[in-house]
Structures are given as C-alpha cells and as structure tokens.
Amino acid sequence: MKTNEGAANPIEAANPLQSQPQGGFKSVGDAFRSGIRDYNAGDKTGAVRALQYAAMQGHTVSLWKLGRMFAEGDGVDHDDLKAFEYFSQIADRYADESPGTRQAPFVSSAFVALGGYFLDGIAGSYVKADVSRAVDMFQYAASYYGDPDGQYALARLYLDGQGVPKDPRQAARWLKLAAEKGHRQAQALLGNLLVSGQGVPRQPGLGLMWLTLARDGSDADKDAWIAELHDKNFAAASEADRKQALSYLEQYIRKKQ
C-alpha cells in the first residue's frame, strides 16, 4: 500500500539528517538503543541522529519514533510532512506485518496517523485531504490489526457520515470493540449512544457504566468533554438507571480482575 506518491524523493525528505555523517554504531539495534538512551536523557539531537541511522536501515520502531517526534515537535521543529513520510515508510514496507508481532502495534499506529493526515491534508504540501484514503487507513488498522485508535477513528467517521454513509449502528460496533480494549474516548461515545438509543437498543444503565469508566480513566485536562458528557447523562438519569450502572460496573471490574 503506497502512501507517499507526489514526493520527489520521499525517503530523502523524511530523513533531514541523512547527509550528516552517520556512524559509531555497531548495529541497527545499537543505534536504536543509543537513540532511546539519548531521548530519555533529554538529548533529543543525539536521539534523532541515532534513530535516523536505524530508520535508514528500515528499523520500524525508529521510523515510528521519529514520526511521533516530528508530529509533536518533540525535540525537533514540528513538521507534519516529515512525520507523514516516516509513517508512510512504515506503511509501505510493513503493511503485511502479522498482527501479534512486536512490530505490529507500531505499524497499525502508523496507519492511524496516516489516516489523520489524509483526513485533513497537510497545508502547503502534496498531501491533500482525501477522505476515502483516510477511511482505508483507519479501516486497515481497525480490522486487520484490531487497533483501538483506528476503531475509534472509523467509528467517528460513521457517526458523522464522513467518507462513509452515516451509520450509528456501525459506529457503535467499532466503538464497542475499542471500548473493550480500554479506549476512553470510545467508551464515552459508546455510553452516550447507549443512553440515547442512537443506533443501538437503548440501555441507559449500561451506557452510564461506560461513561463512568471513561471519566475515571481519562485525562481531565485533555478530555474535559468526557466528564461533561458523563455529568450531563447522569444528571438526566433515573435512580434505577444509576443503580443498574453501578451493578454493571461491579460486574465489569470483577470480569477484568
């Protein structure tokens, strides 16, 4: 699955330090370990240099880590195009990686990241918004790898009717798969659908349970909307529904222990 058509030399573009002398590493693994040590020690420049050495040999985790660093501006200038091209290298080289391997989570994460870039495009670059390709990326991560972020992203598209027919039932199916894996945003949206009966049979007690799990496990600063959704639904719930939610929650916790 090719993802980076349009770049004159996508590998060169994705490796801005490749013109610098590389060396001092006994192996790809040694370069990766050195990069992670430097990163953890706060030496992001040293980390990038070592990780790029490993990435140029096709080391999956190094490619992924560099993609995340450029996507977040973590120790490097924020550059979505460079991030896109690192993730593209993973998708192009390792799309057939079997689920369950040590590399698989990084491959599936790369597909999810690419889906996000295709959804919105990257301003001033050859990466244009292409919702159908975004759907393909999320679908692959969600179905082949069972990636909860991919499942959540795909569910959001079905909820909004973006690139796919609007289908709350399909959205609920993908949300449940992600929610069962502990994905807090998916738990919150699934809970809200169950309380309202949108796309699924109305089950307010079960919906309140998912909303409680989402709220308790979420980052209050990053996901304030989850707490707001929880509080709104609980305020409107009957006492019987609240008691049922507590019973479901106790059963869920026992099952997970």
Write the layout of secondary structure elements.
Elements: H1 10-14, H2 28-40, H3 44-55, H4 60-72, H5 80-94, H6 104-120, H7 131-143, H8 148-160, H9 168-180, H10 184-196, H11 204-217, H12 224-236, H13 239-256
InterPro entries: Mitotic_Regulator (IPR052945), Sel1-like (IPR006597), TPR-like_helical_dom_sf (IPR011990)
Protein name: Exopolysaccharide biosynthesis protein
Organism: Pseudochelatococcus lubricantis
Sum this structure up briefly:
By secondary structure, the chain is an all-alpha fold. Helices cover 67% and strands 0% of the residues. The chain has a domain at 179-257.
Labels describing this entry:
Exopolysaccharide biosynthesis protein; TPR-like_helical_dom_sf; 13 helices; 257 residues; 0% strand; single chain; Sel1-like; mainly alpha; Mitotic_Regulator
What does this molecule look like?
The protein has helices at residues 10-14, 28-40, 44-55, 60-72, 80-94, 104-120, 131-143, 148-160, 168-180, 184-196, 204-217, 224-236, 239-256. With 257 residues, it is mostly helical. The protein is 67% helix and 0% strand. The protein has a domain at 179-257. It has 13 helices and no strands. Residues 1-24 are annotated as: Disordered. This is Exopolysaccharide biosynthesis protein.
